[in-house]
């Protein structure tokens, strides 16, 4: 069909992972709190690694959900 993408294709092209993460950072209070804690000066290496691990786990939990919502809105 002449230059018309399915919703899945539109999301893959226009709303990539980095955009989903920006949206998470803006909307999800838990993700936002973890990012703020990571930006705290004087954080020990152990605490920093722990927070980074929690942030990655939160991303892995939320990415499929945010992707599915993006497809529904496309």
TrEMBL record:
PANTHER family per the UniProt record, alphabetical: ACETYL-COA CARBOXYLASE 2 (PTHR45728:SF1), ACETYL-COA CARBOXYLASE, ISOFORM A (PTHR45728)
Domain of life of the source: Eukaryota
Gene3D superfamilies, alphabetized: 2-enoyl-CoA Hydratase, Chain A, domain 1 (3.90.226.10)
Protein name: Acetyl-CoA carboxylase 2
Cellular component terms (Gene Ontology): mitochondrion
One Gene Ontology term from the biological process aspect of the record: fatty acid biosynthetic process
InterPro entries registered for this protein in UniProt: ACCA (IPR049076), AcCoA_carboxyl_beta (IPR034733), ClpP/crotonase-like_dom_sf (IPR029045)
Gene Ontology molecular function terms on file: acetyl-CoA carboxylase activity
Record domain Acetyl-coenzyme A carboxylase carboxyl transferase subunit beta: where: 1-74
């Amino acid at each position: 069909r002449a230059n018309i993408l399915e919703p899945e294709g539109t999301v893959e092209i226009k709303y990539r992972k980095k955009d989903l993460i920006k949206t998470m950072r803006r909307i999800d209070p838990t993700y936002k709190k973890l990012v703020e804690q990571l930006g705290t000066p004087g954080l020990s290496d152990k605490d920093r690694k722990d927070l980074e691990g929690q942030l990655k786990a939160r991303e892995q939990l939320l990415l499929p959900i945010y992707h599915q919502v993006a497809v529904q809105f496309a």
